[in-house]
Write a structure and sequence with these properties.
The chain is of the alpha/beta class and 232 residues long. It contains 9 helices and 9 strands. It is globular. The chain starts with a helix and ends with a helix.
């Protein structure tokens, strides 16, 4: 813990915590501060002027980042017959039906995304208490309940990020790795922020995007100017 404290202290010494930086400057600071022995994740967090307890203020959706996330996505697919074969050929790590449901109930959680064909939702629905709290329940609005399992797997592994606002009005996601170029990180940040702006719900009143910050796994948080984040 002492090392972490020292590293964060050194990271914060190079920034003005009250200032709003441009994305370019924020990325530069985070890349310089990312000195861990692993490739740190760069994460964006947005404070939104919504109360997700109200249905008309829920912010949820999916965005494909232009340069991916740098994370290897492990995919579980509920399907039978030809669709199961499609899932296997597309590179899904886990494929099955009732048998897959039993594995998950028994504690198998070696996946980051769950995809299901519509006819499998009866099986998947029984896993709501396991998958729901982890944000893994397949949803047709997110493209994870579909007959085109090949496309869904390709999207999941190709940089698609699902987002959902949390209780405090915060939405966050990993948008790359410290090893990405500055340009790649900037473009990924803008793509994510644009998706959140476009997903503004009808019930949102007043200021929608209140605050945006970037951080790395072991580094400081850097506030960025909201107007810069979704500039064309």
């Amino acid at each position: 813990m002492a090392k972490l404290g020292k590293r964060l202290k050194n990271g914060y010494s190079s920034i003005d915590r009250d200032a709003n930086y441009t994305i370019a400057d924020a990325v530069k600071i985070l890349k310089a501060a990312a000195i861990a022995k692993f490739d740190e994740t760069i994460e964006v967090a947005m404070n939104l002027g919504v109360d997700p307890k109200h249905a008309d203020q829920m912010v949820r959706g999916v965005v494909t980042l232009p340069h991916g996330t740098g994370k290897t996505m492990r995919v579980a697919v509920f399907a039978k017959g030809d669709k199961a074969k499609d899932a296997q050929s597309a590179g899904a790590e886990l494929v099955g039906a009732e048998d897959l449901g039993e594995k998950i109930n028994a504690g198998e959680m070696g996946f980051d995304r769950v995809i299901a064909t519509p006819d499998m939702m009866g099986v998947v629905g029984k896993l709501g208490k396991v998958l729901g709290p982890r944000g893994l329940m397949p949803n047709p609005k997110l493209g994870t309940v579909t007959t085109d399992v090949k496309a869904a797997i390709k999207n999941a592994k190709g940089g698609e990020v699902q987002f959902r606002v949390e209780k405090a009005g915060i939405v966050h996601a990993g948008i790359g790795k410290a090893s990405f170029s500055a340009e790649q990180l900037q473009e990924n940040v803008r793509a994510f922020v644009d998706a959140i702006v476009k997903a503004k719900p009808a019930g949102a009143k007043g200021m929608y995007v209140k605050r945006i910050s970037l951080s790395s796994t072991m580094g400081p948080g850097v506030k960025i100017n909201p107007s810069d984040a979704h500039a064309a």
